[in-house]
């Protein structure tokens, strides 16, 4: 059922808008269609949305619940009044779809049985916060939302009093470990324990990334697609709140400051400097929660474990090799502000030569 | 004497009132009379977006969640325990033994083991990551499920043009299928993959959009559900066989020897002729919106009368869907019917698994879409309700087989069977309306001598349509009513 948007007031508004649009074509009327589904537990799936003033809004109410519902758009600050007026309809209510005959009602659907849907179209001209609510008896006090008619940003959802409290949830508690009071902030059903790792979408890395915190302030990102250490940072770990929200489109954020970034593209070479090996990631093992990564450089098996230097002054990278019948070359950038030292082999012009057959090597990277 | 007669009349009168009261005002039986739905208590602080669930051989329940936790639940102590952590959107689990599981997470299939026996996983082995990742959020990965030979099957979502891809990707980039709503720009997006025991991952079947997720039936046949969208007029359940194409063209670019053409530029009639049709269509909106995991009832009757049948969850409805399949003309087709458990059941029914005691455990998720969070356990109370056991195609209509003998008058009343038919179009646009919607008159109804089978003759039978039946007040003689009263048969082929 279409609730006509032709109250005199609206007609006048339309006329004014029409006249305005002649002179200000930028403010032309827009059309928007919003689908609102009913969730269980007396909730609209959309707790709020925003449209610009002078929008012809179509709301489709799609009722998947096992109860009957309607959707009533009211004038600003009128939700409770309309809900109370609907209640007063008493036994007449059902016949009237629980819609009070009131100027506070802007538009409404009928009562929709489970599985039904209905669209309503109406014009919103003036800025304001227009509640939408189910006026079925008992529902109106918890089942509502807010249509913002505005061009301004909305208040944060968790502080938006126009949204039911249950839908003001903070999705994605922040794993913000800036050093001191992180224990209370675990986003998991257990306190965070360090070392700690997440497979997640990290910036400046392939999509198969592993973020590792060696302690509350020292972290690194290992690329599990390309099999090398990408960067390391100090001051915290990660904030996954955006990544965890909904479908996981957004990247996890680094908390702290990156002090080292691999600038070589890929550090290992086999035999000759111009041959980049093919890599395969094979997994990792946790020892006291510290990961040891396993990967292949062609057919050379590599294990790599990263730990902290004393006083958190940098990283120690321990490699073990198997099937390395040729010398391995490991490339660094000498101007990256890091002091490199290796337990095996020598650096020459930013290239460490690791003799064939070397089984173990520790490379330290001091900030 | 007069008084006694008066009292007797009054009593008899009261009795009549009572009977008619019982008839008119006693509530009909409902699903809640036959099943219990219990919320499994969750550990405090858990965001229970449930990615996958399973049972360990020792009886522990295991679940993985959106924030990467994998936790076990001891049914006796009702205690949760962390098993592994740090997974990237895990959406599939396969239990190997009490100390080992396989997890399908975004970037790879991972074998997770507790090697030192302390109850907490310490080894995360990459079983396969031999498929592309563009970083697009819609590239979810599902499975694994194992066939009887031990091969594993996983399903790889297409990317969505609602978001871009990352600067760095994994796998060979090919922009050929980028035009269109959903695309496959790295290998084997839109495919079902088979991992053989030698560790190699092979492309198995193509043409999927968002195959959440896979399951075998009692006969060992592989099924995959897929979600309404572009090239899917409505949500579907496919019987997946090697080498076949199931309708969404984006993934075709990775098919060996496929010509270098933009798949969606091929004529629809050409694509239509190439594709293998679904076994089941789930009418969109009022029946299903987003079908999930197919499993089969392996409880041997502990979960009620439907042993051996397949169940599929849905994200938007407070029920699971029961699949009534048959082979017609060499392919599987059949009907789907809601399986209600009462109003305590939530929506968001992403994952299903049967517990050793025959109860059905359901893992719920929302994942940024409609749904809910948590875990529920559904148990059968042991009484059989009136339901449709089978819907079989005949030359002139359908045979409906019921769980219980029907009341004869109700069963023979043609008004209790309202048929309509329609079809969804195979096309590029998102979803399809119902085309050629027609009520199909019932010509005759016959009831079998045991009153459990109704043979319905319809005015017209036409292939390529969904036949939707809404039943009226069918009931047994002891007033049990058919409360699951919507059933949809995908009539791909007529009997020859």
List keywords for this structure.
heterodimer; A: 367 residues; mainly beta; Immunoglobulin-like; Beta-galactosidase, Chain A, domain 5; 2 domains; 6-stranded antiparallel beta sheet; 8% helix; elongated; B: 496 residues; Neuraminidase; 8-stranded antiparallel beta sheet; 4-stranded antiparallel beta sheet; 3 helices; 39% strand
- Would you list the SSEs of chain A in sequence order as H and E? HEEEEEHEEEEEEEEEHEEEEEEEEEEEE
If strands are numbered along the chain, what order do they take across the biggest sheet of chain A?
A: 18-19-20-21-26-23
CATH architecture of the largest domain in chain B: 6 Propeller
SS-based structural class of chain B? mainly beta
Q: What ranges of chain A have pLDDT less than 50 throughout 5 or more consecutive residues?
A: 1-9, 17-26, 170-184
State the share of residues found in helices of chain B, binned by percent.
Answer: under 10%
Describe the biggest sheet of chain A?
Answer: 6 strands, antiparallel
CATH topology of the largest domain in chain B: Neuraminidase
What form of chain A results from the Cα inertia axes?
elongated
Specify the helix fraction band of chain A: under 10%
Strand percentage of chain A: 35-45%
Write up this protein.
The complex is a heterodimer of chains A (367) and B (496). Chain A is mainly beta and 367 residues long. Chain A is built from 3 helices and 26 strands. In chain A, a hairpin with a 3-residue loop joins strand 1 and strand 2. The N and C termini of chain A lie far apart (69 Å). The N terminus of chain A is likely disordered. Chain B is mainly beta and 496 residues long. Chain B has 2 domains: 347 residues, Neuraminidase, CATH 2.120.10.30; 106 residues, Immunoglobulin-like (Sandwich). At the A-B interface, strand 10 and strand 18 of A face strand 8 and strand 9 of B. Strand 18 of chain A pairs antiparallel with strand 9 of chain B, so a sheet runs across the interface.
């Amino acid at each position: 059922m279409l609730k006509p948007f032709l109250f005199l007031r609206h007609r006048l508004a339309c006329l004014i808008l029409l006249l305005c649009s002649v002179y200000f074509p930028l403010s032309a009327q827009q059309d928007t269609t919003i689908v609102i589904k009913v969730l269980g537990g007396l909730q609209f799936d959309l707790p709020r949305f925003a449209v610009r003033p002078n929008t012809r809004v179509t709301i489709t109410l799609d009722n998947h619940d096992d109860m009957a519902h309607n959707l009533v758009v009211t004038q600003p600050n009128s939700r409770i009044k309309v809900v109370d007026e609907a209640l007063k309809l008493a036994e007449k209510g059902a016949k009237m779809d629980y819609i009070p005959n009131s100027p506070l009602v802007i538009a409404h659907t009928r009562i929709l049985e489970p599985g039904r849907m209905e669209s309503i179209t109406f014009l919103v001209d003036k800025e304001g916060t227009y509640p939408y609510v189910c006026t079925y008896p008992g529902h109106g006090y918890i089942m509502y939302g807010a249509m913002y008619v505005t061009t301004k940003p909305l208040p944060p959802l968790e502080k938006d009093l126009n949204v039911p409290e249950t839908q003001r949830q903070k999705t994605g508690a922040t794993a913000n470990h800036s050093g001191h009071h992180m224990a209370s902030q675990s986003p998991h059903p257990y306190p965070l324990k360090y070392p700690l790792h997440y497979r997640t979408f990290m910036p400046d890395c392939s999509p198969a990334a592993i973020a590792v915190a060696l302690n509350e302030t020292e972290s690194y990102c290992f690329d599990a697609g390309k099999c090398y250490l990408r960067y390391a940072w100090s001051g915290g770990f990660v904030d996954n709140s955006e990544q965890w929200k909904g479908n996981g489109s957004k990247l996890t954020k680094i908390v702290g400051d990156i002090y080292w970034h691999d600038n070589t593209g890929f550090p290992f070479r086999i035999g000759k400097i111009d041959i980049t090996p093919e890599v395969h990631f094979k997994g990792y093992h946790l020892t006291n929660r510290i990961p040891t990564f396993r990967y292949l450089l062609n057919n050379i098996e590599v294990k790599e474990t990263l730990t902290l230097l004393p006083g958190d002054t940098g990283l120690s990278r321990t490699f073990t090799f198997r099937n390395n019948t040729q010398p391995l070359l490991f490339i660094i950038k000498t101007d990256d502000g890091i002091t490199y030292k290796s337990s095996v082999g020598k650096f020459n012009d930013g290239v460490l030569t690791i003799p064939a057959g070397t089984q173990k090597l520790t490379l330290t990277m001091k900030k | 004497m007069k008084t006694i007669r008066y009292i007797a009349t009054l009593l008899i009168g009261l009795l009549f009132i009572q009977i008619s009261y019982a008839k008119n005002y006693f509530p009909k039986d409902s699903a809640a009379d036959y099943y219990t739905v219990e919320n499994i208590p969750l550990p405090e602080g858990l965001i229970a977006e449930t990615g996958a669930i399973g049972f360990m051989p020792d009886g522990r329940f295991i679940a993985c969640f959106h924030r990467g936790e994998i936790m076990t639940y001891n049914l006796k102590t009702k205690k949760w325990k962390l098993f592994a952590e740090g997974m990237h959107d895990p959406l599939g689990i396969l239990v190997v033994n009490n100390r080992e599981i396989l997890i399908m997470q975004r970037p790879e299939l991972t074998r997770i083991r507790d090697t030192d026996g302390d109850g907490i996983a310490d080894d995360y082995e990459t079983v396969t990551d031999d498929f592309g990742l563009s970083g697009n959020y819609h590239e979810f990965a599902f499975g694994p499920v194992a066939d009887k030979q031990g091969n594993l099957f996983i399903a790889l979502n297409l990317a969505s043009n609602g978001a871009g891809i990352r600067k760095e990707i994994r796998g060979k980039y090919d922009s050929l299928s980028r035009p269109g709503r959903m695309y496959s720009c790295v290998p084997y997006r839109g495919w079902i993959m088979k991992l053989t025991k030698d560790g190699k991952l092979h492309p198995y079947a193509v043409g999927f959009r968002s195959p959440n997720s896979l399951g075998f039936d009692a006969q060992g046949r592989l099924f995959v559900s897929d979600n309404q969208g572009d090239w899917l007029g409505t949500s579907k359940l496919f019987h997946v066989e090697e080498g076949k194409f199931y309708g969404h063209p984006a993934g075709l670019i990775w098919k060996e020897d496929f010509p270098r053409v933009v798949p969606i530029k091929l004529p629809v009639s050409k694509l239509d002729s190439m594709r293998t049709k679904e076994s089941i269509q789930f009418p969109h909106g009022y029946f299903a919106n987003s079908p999930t995991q197919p499993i089969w009832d392996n409880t041997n009757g502990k979960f009620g009368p439907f042993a051996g049948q397949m169940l599929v969850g849905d994200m938007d409805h407070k029920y699971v869907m029961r699949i009534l399949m048959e082979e017609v003309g060499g392919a599987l087709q059949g009907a789907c019917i809601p399986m209600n458990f009462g109003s305590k059941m939530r929506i968001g029914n992403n994952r299903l698994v049967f517990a050793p005691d025959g109860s059905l455990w359901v893992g719920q998720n929302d994942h940024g879409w409609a749904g809910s969070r948590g875990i529920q356990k559904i148990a059968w109370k042991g009484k059989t309700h009136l339901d449709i056991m089978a819907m079989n195609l005949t030359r002139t209509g359908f045979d409906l087989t019921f769980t219980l003998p029907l009341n004869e008058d109700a069963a023979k009343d043609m008004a209790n069977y309202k048929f309509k038919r329609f079809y969804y179009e195979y096309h590029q646009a998102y979803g399809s309306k119902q085309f050629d919607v027609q009520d199909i008159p019932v010509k005759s109804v016959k009831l079998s001598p045991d009153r459990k089978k109704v043979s319905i003759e319809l005015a017209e039978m036409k292939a390529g349509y969904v036949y939707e039946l809404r039943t009226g007040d069918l009931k047994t003689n002891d007033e049990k009513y058919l409360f699951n009263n919507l059933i949809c048969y995908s009539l791909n082929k007529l009997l020859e």
